[in-house]
Amino acid sequence: MRSLVITGAAAVLVIAIALVGGSGSSNVVVAGPTPSPSATISPSVPAAVTHSPSPAASLAATGATPTLGSATPTASESSTNLPQGEARRDAEIAAVLASRAVAVTSDSQARWAQTAVSGADVPDFARLVALPIASWAYRVTSVVASSDPDVVVVTAAMSYRLDVDTVEDIVAERITMRQGRDGWLVVSEHTAGSRMMPWDLGTLTVIRGRQALVIGIDTAGATLREYAALADRVAGEVTAFWGSDWVHRPVLVVPATTSQMARGLGRSTGSLTGLGAVTNDTNISARSGRGNERVWTNTPVMAGLSAAGRGIVLRHEMFHVAVGSASTNATPLWLEEGMAQYVGYLGSGVPITTAIGDVVADVRAGHLPTVLPSDGQFSGSQFAIAYESAYVAADMLARQYGQVALIRFYRLVASGAGSSSTNVASALGVVTGQGLAAFTSAWRTQLQAFSA
Fold first, then answer.
1. For domain 195-325, which architecture applies?
2. Where is the composition biased (Polar residues) (predicted)?
3. 19: exposed, middle or buried (C-beta count within 10 Å: 0-12, 13-18, 19+)?
4. 49-192: what CATH class?
5. Domain range summary for the chain, segments of one domain joined by +
6. Fewest CB atoms less than 10 Å from the CB: which of 195, 323, 354, 425?
7. Lowest mean pLDDT among 255-264, 390-399, 412-421
């Protein structure tokens, strides 16, 4: 995930990166129609028995619409090692969760309410249906019995997709359920892990631009419309630079507070100090190694920037969105972040010497780097110097060989089959005719020139 840091009296923008993890294991067994968000965290229940659900729990995946509390075990259950009572229980639980999934995708608050006890601690349905949810499903990974025979804790992989997403995201859910007169019903449902979902954080408002989808969390509609217009404009600018081979439907999440942003990213509020925005690859798709890109704005920080400053921030982040599928583990951060910095400032009118104040001061103090910044430097105490020196590298390539060559270099590195250093060396040879040593020497000379 990439973050934009605002530093210096001139509102200089430096970009930093921080990986926000999130994984949803999909040891399956319960799947309902298509998913939508989930939410809070359920009370712990003393565990007595844990097991993977029976095949009957996957009945929702067949496309049949289950009836609450009345799921019938399938013939395949007889071949499982589960007692018949547990198999039936799992089938009934699967039916309830499948019905919840149908409630979300069909905007049926009544059906949602029928799957839970009165006063259940579950996501606010109004927040869920504010989102353009195209699919939503649950897959049970474990059922844990408690000392109360009528209470279980279900761990499920909840998958959902917005109508602008390319893949489904998977979120680990912890669901407490109780059996009563009306069968198994949900007592609480919460997202497990450190990251909270947008519907956990506040009232949601969704604004569609020509291309962008903006999700506000406790944020005024007028502010969201401004972001939608800016995102649409920036998306066009990034396309003009990079090309049209990316999904032109960026999603911005605009929380009212930095605290909401931190909880949505699973980070501390302090770690976001000075950051203008963060691009987060959800990276929890069950079907591929990449998830959907989300640009989270640090709205209080963005509010303190000029219109030009906000444009620089979003151009940087939009570049990350555009090249998401082109970037690989073999793309070094100095190239990924240096390019994003270059695109962010492109056409802004901010001189590069203004944007690289920290590295200029460092070089003047006698600390001229000998090698391009390593990936680790982008999250260390000297991250600002790493980002700025990476910007100089990208800018130097563009100045000497042109923007087309810079883009070609990036694509060659990202598509290379070797290690990061091997791919960089190979791409440099193709694009510039130089080796890495010559390129690094020229980059050091450029740093000295800017610092003179």
1. 2-Layer Sandwich (3.30)
2. 64-83
3. exposed
4. alpha beta
5. 49-192, 195-325, 326-452
6. 354
7. 412-421
